[in-house]
Design a protein that fits this description.
CATH topology of the largest domain in chain A: Ribosomal Protein S8, Chain: A, domain 1
Largest interface: A-B, 83 and 84 residues
Order of helices and strands of chain A: EHHHEEHEHEEEHEEHHEHHHEH
Shape of chain A: globular
Number of strands of chain A: 11
Oligomer: homodimer
Radius of gyration of chain A: 20 Å
CATH architecture of the largest domain in chain A: 2-Layer Sandwich
Largest sheet of chain A: 7 strands, mixed
Strand order of the largest sheet of chain A: 2-3-4-10-5-6-7
Number of helices of chain A: 12
CATH superfamily of the largest domain in chain A: Malate/L-lactate/L-sulpholactate dehydrogenase, NADPH binding domain
Low-confidence stretches of chain A: none
Number of domains of chain A: 3
Chain lengths: ~325, ~325
């Protein structure tokens, strides 16, 4: 593991992206979002995911030149075609637009179809909350989770993100509907550890804490069993319905070909309702910290500040092999500069 | 247990409510919402909850004459004061208004502070979805669930409701953030059964399926452990922020004095985005039903149709003692007719 200064990471990623055909400004933003994700400690979706992103560009599933296009406008609601562009750039643009709509109408909504994996969903919650707005967004995914009652992965883990502005720093929830991601299962297995709690079923249909057994059965548990399963279904339905895009059951169940996702971005302006100080969330955070034993309960996003500061100061941590791969990934460009 | 025709239930409840001071139309609607809740099989929040509702009217926590009042209007976003009126009437009016806003602006939002328990939350999801709109609403509650990491009930179980229109009948999610409600724990204990899954911690901090141990410790589990706990926190923050009402930590932790709740109602018009047939959700439901073993996975709200039809046909089931109490509860009216 080495540590690389934030700016060097961003510059290197942007250089690779430009060689892959990104326009300079888009390369900078895309690189910044990847660097910020690692900086905030969401290592699975930052630099560690960059090579998969590059692979999907090379395979043609992500079109680096495609910018999202508005299909319908109706007051505070818009439907966009993501045109299979880079998922994080589409997501950033969609939340930005929802934020503009919320300043005009109090609340705004942009539904995006035909887009790609948004990488770290929390990014777009921070984006809204840092600007003093509530941001709510969700995405569907390929089928990767069995609905409650079934043994077959028929629903997505459909992450839901909610960012809430707060005077002392945003509260940001970023949760997928599976209790443990496949990435988390792999980490536990490699460390030879059991999960702290039941994380899925084994091939015999018994609940288990054995990560390898769940990887084999492909039956991770939804958050709250039947409840998270149901939430995943309605998130998928709303995203596909409002974007006129694909529902989970129509998405190719292959992480390297998972494209054509459907997403919804909602922004709400608390100032339009009269909440101007953003101190409501402060009171809630303080009440959480008082819960016995005091200091034991944290608010969503609480650890991010500390990790962010540490990684900004010491450099972003990255495996040497991952970094070498990133540096090499621009060697065979799709387009010459 | 006896069965009473739907119309007789509604008429009886409405009669009691009129004696308690409800205006005739409000008595009819309030009675209908209670009857529909029992009819749909949500027995805990229908007739079985009526006596508690009457007790809160008699104690002055619910003001039967109070109608909600608009405090601020900004485009598609409104903030209302619920004025401690009947929770289900306030909720119905708020969703109705969010629906009107969504027809004007594509999306609409009404935040309501200073209101009361909305009884069955699903009601307002059905209300929107039956009209061809997406309805999303949530409420905070008194503190009744420990945040993850803490042993003290510092957060609410803050139910979240999402109704999605569907050509063949709505998909409606109605989930509280606790894995099992106190009502469910009590039912299991009285039947002498263990919970099917861990439902909380015992007084020693161990996960347990023993319902009585959880009732004693007051430590039920949130849906998905840390995830549902985090979702409850952001739902509370958004509701208190947009309504300028109370957050969970400011609400009296006593079921008979739980008043001044904060709620948010969002409606989205899929037709404004171009989805006119409402057949997207049909495709998702069909894909769920195909999941192996076929027919084992259900969609949210699936059983409601069957229960509703059965109870409409046979009469609404009610314990004889509960029915006797309802009939008697108008005997000492607050106001003469």
């Amino acid at each position: 593991m080495k540590r690389i200064p934030f700016d060097d990471v961003q510059r290197t990623l942007a250089g690779v992206l430009r060689k892959l055909g990104f326009a300079p400004e888009r390369a900078e933003l895309c690189a910044r979002l990847f660097a910020e994700t690692t900086c905030d400690g969401v290592y699975t979706h930052g630099m560690n995911r960059f090579s998969r992103f590059v692979a999907m560009i090379r395979s043609g599933h992500v079109d680096v030149t495609a910018e999202p296009r508005v299909e319908t406008r109706f007051g505070a609601l818009e439907r966009w075609d993501g045109r299979c562009g880079p998922g994080n750039l589409n997501a950033y643009a969609a939340m930005e637009r929802a934020m503009v709509l919320s300043r005009e109408h109090g609340i705004g909504c942009v539904a995006v179809g035909n887009t790609n994996h948004w990488m770290r969903g929390g990014t777009y919650g921070w984006q809204a909350a840092d600007a003093g707005l509530i941001g709510i967004c969700w995405t569907n995914t390929m089928p990767n989770l069995p609905p409650w009652g079934s043994a077959e992965p028929g629903i997505g883990n459909n992450p839901l993100v909610i960012g809430v502005p707060r005077a002392k720093g945003p509260v940001v929830l970023d949760m997928a509907m599976s209790q443990f991601s496949y990435g988390a299962l792999e980490s536990y297995r490699k460390r030879g550890e059991l999960l702290p709690l039941d994380g899925g079923f084994d091939t015999e249909g018994k609940l288990t804490r054995d990560p390898g057994a769940i990887e084999t059965s492909q039956r991770p548990l939804a958050v709250g069993y039947w409840k998270g399963s149901a939430l995943a279904v309605v998130l998928d339905a709303m995203a596909a319905m409002l974007s006129l895009g694909k529902a989970t059951h129509q998405i190719v169940p292959d992480a390297l070909r998972e494209t054509g996702l459907s997403q919804v971005y909602v922004a709400i302006n608390p100032e339009a309702a009269g909440e101007t100080e953003h101190d409501v969330a402060d009171g809630i955070v303080e009440s959480l910290h008082r819960c016995a034993p005091a200091g034991s309960a944290r608010y969503p996003g609480e650890r991010t500040f500390q990790i962010r500061e540490e990684n900004r100061r010491l450099g972003l941590p990255v495996d040497e092999s991952v970094w070498a791969e990133i540096e090499a990934s621009g060697i065979f460009p799709l387009k010459s500069e």
